[in-house]
Specification:
4-stranded antiparallel sheet, alpha/beta, 6-stranded mixed sheet, 2 domains, 415 residues, Rossmann fold
Length: 415
């Protein structure tokens, strides 16, 4: 039986060997073609996938860079030029027929980019597929407080004492206006960003609109408007309790000089008004830093809604959709107080109580002596060591304000 089966197998092999019809060659060629198509198609697909990934990365980097430029400069032309520069440096070299478009959208709240290109496919071309499309979309969206999509209320305590005269006050104005440009975005419909300004020197000037509400008295004196206030006499000098009878602020005597002339400005999202207010600041007087610290708190405190009733009301501390931030800036020792502990001691206690409500506090020193009392006060007032900046030049001051602003208003990608 085995011998018979062996002879049958040998016969079949012989007939295969002697067949001259070409069927085997055709089958072999067809098999090779299929194998080449599969391998070649895999190569083409791999090239297309690599190109698409590189295109997406290039586009993402471009819109993020352009978004940052737009936040700082508010200049569409400059931001788009930045996007193009980044994209051209990083895009895939194997794509062709690449058509791109960059635009500022959502009322300045986002940078959108699209790209349409192809990758040629030499192997798949045998199957009638000469190219594969590479279509990319990337969007950098401005969001708040670590991409949590929250609104923000920010108060700026700005030192306008005599030592800030000359180039220093000019540097401060540039830095503060940069901050406003970045933090206050155009579209306030869904999430808002508001800034309040608290200039200080020997006193805080609350202006005629708020003077009677916080002192219980009418402005006094003749000639120059006298609407400056000092600290409260009660323990509420350290809290944000609203002023009421028996707990009012001391006004500056009518025979004295009201410094600074620069007044507080409650929360606003009006860029023009905020920047105009910054431009009006002048440098004069000594340094009552505890007053500036306290008023930076009051301006974003919900307990003061009855005082600042004509302005957007600060949100409740319990509102999880709103971040409250105080930025405290000074250039020297706190050397002026009218009652109680020293100005620096009062400022530190106010900062402690302010942070206990959930506020985030950034501090910016301008040419402070390392280790000095003002330096230590700024360190202790900050939420953490990373929230404290000590600068020595105007450029560093501007960069510190920008860095804080960019931490508050971040960019996230949306494909």
């Amino acid at each position: 039986m085995l011998i018979k089966n062996a002879r049958t197998a040998q016969g079949i092999i012989a007939r295969f060997r002697d067949d001259r019809s070409g069927a085997i060659a055709i089958i072999f060629a067809f098999t090779v073609f299929i194998l080449l198509a599969i391998v070649g198609g895999a190569v083409d697909y791999g090239r297309w996938l690599t190109a698409k990934t590189k295109q997406q990365n290039a586009m993402d980097a471009a819109v993020l860079a352009a978004g940052r430029v737009y936040q700082i400069s508010n200049n569409t032309t400059q931001s788009i030029a930045t996007a193009i520069e980044y994209y051209e440096k990083m895009k895939s070299l194997i794509v062709s027929n690449d058509t791109t478009n960059f635009a500022v959208v959502d009322n300045g709240g986002a940078m959108l980019a699209t790209s349409s290109a192809i990758v040629n496919t030499p192997f798949l071309g045998f199957a009638g597929i000469s190219s594969l499309p590479v279509n990319i979309t990337s969007k950098a969206i401005m969001t708040v407080a670590g991409n949590n999509d929250k609104s923000i209320e920010v108060s700026l305590m700005l030192d306008v004492t005599g030592s800030m005269g000359g180039s220093k006050i000019a540097d401060l104005k540039v830095a503060a206006k940069d901050f406003i440009d970045i933090v206050v975005w155009a579209d306030q419909s869904e999430h808002y960003s508001r800034i309040a300004i608290a200039p200080f020197s020997e006193h805080v000037n609350v202006g005629t609109e708020y003077f009677q509400k916080v002192t219980g008295q009418s402005p006094s004196g003749s000639g120059t408007e006298r609407t400056c206030v000092r600290e409260r006499q009660t323990y509420d000098r350290y809290t944000d309790a609203a002023p009421v009878p028996g707990n009012y602020f001391d006004k500056y005597p009518s025979w004295g000089t009201c410094r600074p002339q620069s007044k507080i400005l409650p929360l606003s999202s009006d860029k023009y008004m905020l920047k105009s207010h910054i431009d009006s600041l002048g440098a004069e007087g000594r340094t009552a830093g505890h007053l500036g610290t306290a008023w930076a708190w009051y301006l974003i405190s919900p307990n003061w809604n009855s005082v600042f009733s004509g302005s957007p009301a600060p949100a409740s501390y319990s509102n999880s959709h709103v971040e409250k931030i105080a930025v405290l800036m000074t250039d020297g020792e706190y050397n002026q107080q009218y009652s109680g502990a020293s100005s620096a001691t009062q400022a530190r206690q106010i900062c402690t109580n302010m942070k206990a409500t959930g506020l985030t506090v950034y501090t910016v020193g301008f040419q402070l002596s390392t280790g000095g009392e003002a330096y230590q006060t700024m360190q202790q007032c900050a939420t953490s060591s990373s929230h404290f900046f000590n600068t020595t030049t105007g450029d560093e001051l501007r960069q510190a304000f920008r860095e804080i602003a960019l931490q508050l208003v971040t960019l996230r990608l949306s494909h």
